[in-house]
């Protein structure tokens, strides 16, 4: 299958060639022709499957086919004209033709960047991001240009709707990206309000890791005779990502092991996921002291700081990003070789999204979960969800003392030392030396006490165990 065969116009095809896309991904093969035909879509596809292009390419194709509006003034020009007449300019609301709702600012920016790439030869079509954390005057300037496409997080969009800055009466296409995530984050009322403000005749496309439960109910309410496309469920995926569990006795053990694993010479860049913002900051600080180029990313940071951190990650200046789940989706940096779950995620779905930060663009990746003995059940829950066994690994010099508390290794068919399950497939890159899945014997820091980097302090609060904080603090 080629992009030409999907029926896209030549300007978009040229942009795809320039972007280096040679053929559509499976979700694009199915979604693009249906969306060009104007059908509503309910799509469940995995992260990294090319879903942004699956909704954006047909939308750009349709928007490009719309006759340009008679050459009236843009809201910006009308305001200038009013000023020159000595009148107080009234803000004319933007009237977008397409709206993409995303759960996080990072994902919104990613969607806007990709849209710019796909629409580079469609000069009339502009996309802007409307995000929480961005200064209002800057957003008013963007809205005053009356862009065809808005990519927005729900909360800030509602602010602008309520203050009369956006009018959805001309909206033709509505996309809910990662709808399950938006519902998890409590945006249901905002979404209902936004949908109610759009015309009934719109085309609606909903993308979600799952189409079950609450998401499915909402999806049915807001779409009309949708075409359902299920490429892969959230559970069967990431075959290019080697997954491992390392059991740890306490936080001191966890920190020493993390430091050691981060020194793996196959590591290019890593994301370390924590349950709380505070831990993200503290661990990033600790890793910096230990000589890593680390940065934190979480929802308490201003948008400018978040953007700068992501840009440094993309440029390779930040080697280790320590993040809460706000970063679990949307980050698309192919050189991320390792993902660490410093804390396990609350939901198995989040595990899938977290580890999907590595193994991007057809590469292999390594996902390591550092797990307290008491968390064995949570690992099992993830295994049930992904229908994949995650092998337990032990690094020489960092062995957990409580070996008996890992029931997984003793169950029939469970992990045994040297097991290679979940390791790289033949022909794939191997991450541990020697042999995949085997304990490391490279002697980088093989003393019984393990590595104590320059930042290791005996009185560091992270050298002792502490109660887990609630997951509410993301
Ligand atoms: P997404 O699932 O939208 O986050 O896309 C994941 C990554 O795949 C992004 O880096 C896209 O630029 C890239 N991508 C999407 N479609 C294609 C394609 N047909 N060929 C090559 N890369 C693609």
UniProtKB/TrEMBL annotation:
Record flagged with keyword rRNA processing: no
Helicase ATP-binding domain location: 32-229
Biased composition (Basic and acidic residues): 465-474
InterPro entries referenced in this protein's UniProt entry, alphabetically: DEAD/DEAH_box_helicase_dom, DEAD/DEAH_RhlB, DEAD_box_RNA_helicase, Helicase_ATP-bd, Helicase_C-like, P-loop_NTPase, RNA-helicase_DEAD-box_CS, RNA_helicase_DEAD_Q_motif
Domain Helicase C-terminal per the UniProt entry, residue ranges: 257-406
Keywords: ATP-binding, Helicase, Hydrolase, Nucleotide-binding
Motif Q motif, chain ranges: 1-29
Segments traversing the membrane: none
Superkingdom of the source species: Bacteria
GO molecular function, one term: RNA helicase activity
SMART domains in UniProt: DEXDc, HELICc
Chain residue ranges for the region called Disordered: 399-474
GO CC, alphabetical: cytosol
Positions of the DEAD-box RNA helicase Q domain: 1-29
Family statement: Belongs to the DEAD box helicase family.
Protein name: DEAD/DEAH box helicase
């Amino acid at each position: 299958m080629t992009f030409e065969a999907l029926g896209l116009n030549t300007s978009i095809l040229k942009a795809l060639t320039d972007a280096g896309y040679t053929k559509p991904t499976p979700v694009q093969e199915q979604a693009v022709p249906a969306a060009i035909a104007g059908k509503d879509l309910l799509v469940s596809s995995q992260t990294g499957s090319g879903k942004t292009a699956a909704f954006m390419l047909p939308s750009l194709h349709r928007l490009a086919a719309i006759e340009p509006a008679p050459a009236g003034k843009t809201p910006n020009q009308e305001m200038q004209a009013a000023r020159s007449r000595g009148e107080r300019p009234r803000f004319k609301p933007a009237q977008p033709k397409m709206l993409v709702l995303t759960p996080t600012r990072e994902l919104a920016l990613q969607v806007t960047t990709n849209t710019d790439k796909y629409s580079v030869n469609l000069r009339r079509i502009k996309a802007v991001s409307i995000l929480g954390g961005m200064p209002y005057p800057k957003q008013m300037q963007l809205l005053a240009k009356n862009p065809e496409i808005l990519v927005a997080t729900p909360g800030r969009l509602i602010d602008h709707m309520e203050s009369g800055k956006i009018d959805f009466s001309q909206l033709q296409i509505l996309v809910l990206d990662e709808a399950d995530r938006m519902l998890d984050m409590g945006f249901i009322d905002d979404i209902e309000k936004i949908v109610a403000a759009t015309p009934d005749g719109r085309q609606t496309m909903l993308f979600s890791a799952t189409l079950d439960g609450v998401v499915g109910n909402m999806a049915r309410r807001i779409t009309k005779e949708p075409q359902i496309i299920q490429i892969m469920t959230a559970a069967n995926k990431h075959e290019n990502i080697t997954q491992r569990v390392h059991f740890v006795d306490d936080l001191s053990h966890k920190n020493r092991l993390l430091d050691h694993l981060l020194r793996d010479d196959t590591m290019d860049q890593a994301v370390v996921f924590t349950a709380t913002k505070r831990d993200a900051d503290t661990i990033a600080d600790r890793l910096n002291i230990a000589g890593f180029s680390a940065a934190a990313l979480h929802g308490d940071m201003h948008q400018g700081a978040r953007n700068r951190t992501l840009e440094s990650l993309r440029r390779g200046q930040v080697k280790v990003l320590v993040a809460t789940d706000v970063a679990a989706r949307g980050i698309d940096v192919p050189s991320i070789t390792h993902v660490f779950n410093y804390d396990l995620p609350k939901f198995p779905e989040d595990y899938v999204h977290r580890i999907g930060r590595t193994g991007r663009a057809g590469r292999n990746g390594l996902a390591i979960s550092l797990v307290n003995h008491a968390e064995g059940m949570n690992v099992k829950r993830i295994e049930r969800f992904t229908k994949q066994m995650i092998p337990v690994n032990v690094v020489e010099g960092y062995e957990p003392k409580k070996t008996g508390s890992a029931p997984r290794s003793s169950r029939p068919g469970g992990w045994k030392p040297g097991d290679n399950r979940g390791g790289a497939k033949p022909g794939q890159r191997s991450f541990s030396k020697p042999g995949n899945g085997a304990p490391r014997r490279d002697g980088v820091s093989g003393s019984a006490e393990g590595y104590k980097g320059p930042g290791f302090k005996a009185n560091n609060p992270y050298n002792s165990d502490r109660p887990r904080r609630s997951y509410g603090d993301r």
